[in-house]
Amino acid sequence: MEKIAFLGLGRMGQPMARRLAAAGHPLTVWNRTPGRAEGLPEAADPAEAVRGAGVVITMLSDPAALTAVAERFTGELLPDTIWSDMSSVGPAAVADLRRRLPLGVGLVDAPVLGSVGPAASGGLTVLAGGEPADLDRVMPVLETLGSVVRCGGPGSGAALKLVVIGAVIGGVAVVAEALALADSLGLPEELALGALAGGPLGGAVGRARATDADFPVRLAAKDLALAGGGPVLTAVRDRLLAHPELAEQDLARWVDAVRAA
Q: Which domains, from first to last, does the chain contain?
C-alpha cells in the first residue's frame, strides 16, 4: 500500500483518517490545530506530511482554508503523486488547485456525502472527478472510505456535490416550514411527519429529524454560497445565517428553531 498523507482532522477528517489507518495504509496526518491525531503519526507541518507520500488527501472546511494549506505543501509533491481533495469547495476551487499542480502530479476531486458515523464505518458516498488514470490509481483508497461514484472529468465530483447538497438542504428547509405550518394549524407532530415521510420528501424528513448527524449550520450555509445565487437556495441560506447561535449545531437543530420562531 502507498503511503498516504491526510491533511485535515476535523469532524469528518479524523474518522476518515482512522479508517484508512485501520485498513493498513501507511499514514501521516496533519491538522491546523494540534491535538487531533489521537495516536496517528503526526507531522509538524503540511510539507513534512506529504514528503514521500504517493497519495495526498485534503479534507478542509472551505476554499480559503484549502488554498492556505495547499500553499504550504504543493512544492513538496513529487511527480506521480495523486492528490485527492475531499473537501466541499466547489469546482472553481478545484480548477484553481489544478493550476497550482507541479508537473506530473494528478488531482482528483472527491467530496463526500454522509456524516461522522459513515465516515468511521466506511459508509460514505464519494463523488469522484478526475482524469481516468488518476481515478484508477486512487480508487482503492477511496473505496476504503465508501461507495465511489465516478462523476467524470476534473471538477465533476465537486460540481455534483453542490447539486446534491443544495437539494438536501433545500429539502430540509421545506420540511421545516411544513412542520411549522402543521404546528400553527394544530396538527399533531407525528401525523404531519408520517404524511410527509410517506411522500417524495421522505429523505428530507429523515434528515430534518436526524439525531446522529453532525453537519453544522455554518457549513450548510457555506455550501449554499458555493452553489451560487438561485433565489430559493439564497433564501434558505439567509434563513440559516439568521441563527448565528446555531452555527456549530447540526442542521436538524435549525429545523427546531424554525418551528419555534
A: 4-152 (3.40.50.720), 160-260 (1.10.1040.10)
Q: Nearest-CA neighbor of 178 among 259, 260, 253? A: 259
Supply 43's cell numbers: 507531522
pLDDT digits (tens, 9 = 90+) for 127-166: 999 999 999 999 999 999 999 999 999 999 999 999 999 9
pLDDT at 14: 96
Neighbours of 44 (CB within 10 A): 9
Tell if the pTM clears 0.70, that is, is over it.
yes
Residue-wise pLDDT for 159-172, tens only, equals 999 999 999 999 99
pLDDT digits (tens, 9 = 90+) for 207-260: 999 998 899 999 999 999 999 878 999 999 999 999 999 999 999 999 999 999
